[in-house]
Specification:
The protein is built from 5 helices and 7 strands, in the order H-E-E-E-E-H-E-E-E-H-H-H. The chain is of the alpha+beta class. It folds into 2 domains: 67 residues, TATA-Binding Protein, CATH 3.30.310; 68 residues, no CATH class. The strands form 2 sheets. Strands 1-2-3-4 form a 4-stranded antiparallel sheet, covered by helices on one side. Strands 5-6-7 form a 3-stranded antiparallel sheet. This is Reverse transcriptase Ty1/copia-type domain-containing protein.
Length: 157
């Protein structure tokens, strides 16, 4: 990371103030963003020239594999269109359904019913605390791309 950081700084990128694994290069009205995660790098720019320049610089200094347009990163599915970039975790959701035995669960239009009121079930069956925490943690990770589920998580977490 030190060698890569030094290289990026020499190429006139600046390190992010909050996220030190984010590097930024501004050129006129354009911007190049470079994000490093362990041994993966994703980058994008407001114009193709900055991307090509960065790609050439990296290939001249490091052994790199260019994967093309970003479609999948750290469990996130990414779709890029002319109107924007869309991120979802549908594969992760399906994996969670299977992991917690909920493949046949009824789908809801909203993440939390507004007509159902829950009370403490004094005579109910005890839950497995580790599995419950595992479910909540998995949903917290999912909330990175689904902020609309956060209220439900806070309510039941």
């Amino acid at each position: 990371m030190k060698r890569l950081s030094k290289f990026l700084l020499e190429k006139e990128l600046t390190r992010g103030k909050v996220d030190t694994t984010l590097f930024i290069k501004r050129k006129m009205n354009d911007i190049l963003l470079v994000k490093i995660y362990v041994d993966d790098i994703i980058f994008g720019a407001t114009n193709d020239y900055l991307c090509k320049e960065f790609s050439n610089d990296m290939q001249s200094e490091f052994e790199v594999s260019m994967m093309g347009e970003l479609n999948f990163f750290l469990g996130l599915q990414i779709k890029q269109t002319k109107i924007g970039i869309f991120i979802n975790q549908s594969k992760y959701c399906k994996k969670l359904h299977k992991r917690f035995g909920m493949e046949n669960a009824k789908l809801m239009a909203t993440p939390m019913s507004t007509t159902c009121y829950l009370d403490k079930d004094e005579g109910g069956k005890s839950i497995h605390l580790k599995q419950y925490r595992d479910m909540i943690g998995s949903l917290l990770y999912l909330s990175a791309s689904r902020p609309d589920i956060m209220f439900s998580l806070v309510t039941f977490g």
